[in-house]
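Review form for a predicted model. The reviewer records the input and the model, then writes brief findings.
Reviewer: anonymous (R2)
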Amino acid sequence: MTQLITKAIVPAAGLGTRLLPATKSQPKEMLPVGRKPILQHVVEELQAAALRQILIITGRRKRVIEDHFDADPQLVAALKQAGNEAMLADLDYIEGRSRFFYTRQSTPKGLGHAVSLGADFVDSDDCVVALGDSLIAAQEPASLLRAMMKAHRQLKAAAIVAVEKVPLEEAFRYGIVSINGAEPPPGEPVVMTDIVEKPPWGTAPTTLAVAARYVFSPAIFEALDRTLPDKRGEIQLTDAIRLLIHKGEPVYAWLLPPGQRRYDVGNFESYFRAFIDFALADERYGYLVRKYIKAKAYEL
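Model under review:
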């Protein structure tokens, strides 16, 4: 029987300069979206997918991430004494469901370099990579990774990469995937024939953009070791995936099905959209937000 995947790498070392001044003194991954920091949404998705060992790749001035995911017995005891069950439930993410590990990417050398720092942590196991500044919105966010991991084991894949459709005029902002066939069926693995990082405007071969969730075999780390830095001196994860494809390894794309959406919280426009949508979907306060927005709309 194929071994279950239990390890995840979460790159969270980016500088967040496009979100200044909000990120001057705190990591962008810790900005709130609804009632939770961005990174907590990601971690809870991983936990719900039964990923019990989580390595977070941090950077300078990001110690607050470790503090947020550290146990706080005094706070838990105080909440129990006060009988505050709702707040206790909000702290489930630190109550023994996962073990957290940390390493630091001291200088920004690219996403591929950040992932490569997890080689010893992963050892010879398969793993998940989930970007710490990208959210999956769905009725059950973890269903995406659960399905991808199941397919990865069944296919004995080197990689399965989640993708989403983007407007053609925006394709130059993303890693873009080529596949066998014109239109991939949502929620199924499709053989990937190529991948390119941020193609020049107007040259994108498709509109299938990498959607920040990956499942890898250990082969990715050998590919990263062989990946040369780009013109900015960064090692790109897309270039390592491309090496796997050219080597003949089984690499697949996985189109997000209807009802699943990826939010890339990389600038204020996308951050505001994510905050509003997650606030509207909040089971505790969403109805109040909807009430406020409906009233506010009359003033616009």
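Findings: The chain has one domain: 7-297.
Further findings: Residues 268-281 form the longest helix (14 residues).
Recommendation: see findings above.
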